[in-house]
From TrEMBL:
Belongs to the 4-toluene sulfonate uptake permease (TSUP) (TC 2.A.102) family. The keyword Transmembrane helix applies. It holds the Pfam family TauE. It is found in: Cell membrane; Membrane. This is Probable membrane transporter protein. Its main location: membrane. GO terms for cellular component: plasma membrane. The chain crosses the membrane at residues 72-92, 98-116, 180-198, 204-225, 232-250, 262-281. The keyword Transmembrane helix applies. Keywords: Cell membrane, Membrane, Transmembrane, Transmembrane helix.
Length: 310
């Protein structure tokens, strides 16, 4: 019962993060399942089955708040589904001994990317309004879908920053569109896993609990995306993913690091993580202060112009 409650909380928090940041539900949930010893393919299959429900709920919530560009959903979702099916088939044919470290490496790489991306750069906002072309979204969806299925997560970490980096779509619409299109990816990956490993290796009670937690969080996240600082959240999630997957790799048969080496690694990561969070908070406050000053200066200029014209 304690494990199910923990999974429910993980599903809630993961969807809260995913729905407000556009990434990390799969990465966070799969990381936990691997940490408790779940088979790599089964962990990814469990998360993707739960995501069918959570992405549907998240998509509906984002649609109600006007956070979705349906052209982007169509152009990236279908290639994403193809990539996810291929990735699920690939992962299903790997041995457990190989699959677990491989998945941890993918998750670790995504965690590093998330941490650096949001700590150092925040969210780009240039080029708003310019169209996102099919020749960009199609290959992006294919790669993101494949990484998502093989890594148990990756649709958001690959897709969201790539579209944000283009600066052509408002951040809230990027997040809403990525979350909505992930519904297609989750279905395609689940079909691939059912064909590859069957249903006997999937714990459906875990699927249900992850799903319940995610569905509860989905509407809250869709509202929070308008208010929460993505830079700080990205730094927090990236550090957590890095710490957890380094732990998995250091304890794997590939490395089997001594206890003192593990301790030094954890402390080093924790210090760097704290520094990244502190930097993100400082930069967020600095940018907010600059925006406030600019708004005041704009209001003063308008007042002076109105006074002069009068």
């Amino acid at each position: 019962m304690r494990a199910l409650i923990l999974l429910g909380l993980v599903g809630f928090v993961a969807q809260l993060v995913d729905g407000s940041l556009g990434m990390a539900y799969g990465v966070t949930s799969t990381t936990l399942l691997l940490a408790v010893g779940t088979n790599a393919a089964a962990a990814s299959a469990t998360v993707h089955l739960a995501e069918i429900g959570t992405t549907l709920a998240s998509g509906i919530s984002h649609w109600r708040f006007g956070n979705i560009d349906w052209k982007v959903v169509a152009r990236i979702g279908v290639p994403g589904g193809i990539g996810a099916f291929a990735g699920a088939t690939f992962l299903s044919n790997l041995s457990t001994e190989v699959a677990a470290p491989v998945m941890s490496i993918i998750l670790l790489s995504l965690g590093v990317y998330i941490l650096i991306r949001f700590t150092a750069f925040g969210l780009p906002r240039g080029n708003l309004g310019k169209p996102l072309r099919r020749r960009f979204l199609g290959p992006l969806g294919l790669v993101a879908g494949f990484v998502d299925a093989t890594g148990g997560g990756g649709w958001g970490p690959v897709g969201t920053p790539a579209i944000l980096a283009s600066g052509r779509l408002a951040p809230r619409k990027v997040i809403g569109s990525i979350d909505a299109s992930e519904f297609i990816v989750a279905i395609a990956a689940s079909v691939g896993f059912f064909i590859g490993i069957g249903s006997e290796n999937i714990n459906f009670s875990w699927v249900a609990v992850l799903l319940i937690g995610g569905v509860i969080a989905a509407p809250i996240a869709a509202w929070l995306v308008r208010h929460i600082p993505p830079r700080i959240l990205g730094s927090a999630v990236g550090g957590l993913i890095i710490l957890t997957n380094v732990r998995t790799l250091l304890r794997s048969d590939w490395i089997d690091a001594p206890g003192n080496v593990q301790t030094v690694a954890y402390i080093t990561i924790a210090v760097l993580w704290a520094a990244a969070l502190a930097y993100s908070v400082r930069e967020y406050r600095r940018h907010k202060a600059e925006e406030t000053v600019e708004a005041i200066e704009t209001d003063l200029r308008k007042s002076e112009e109105e006074t002069t014209s009068a």
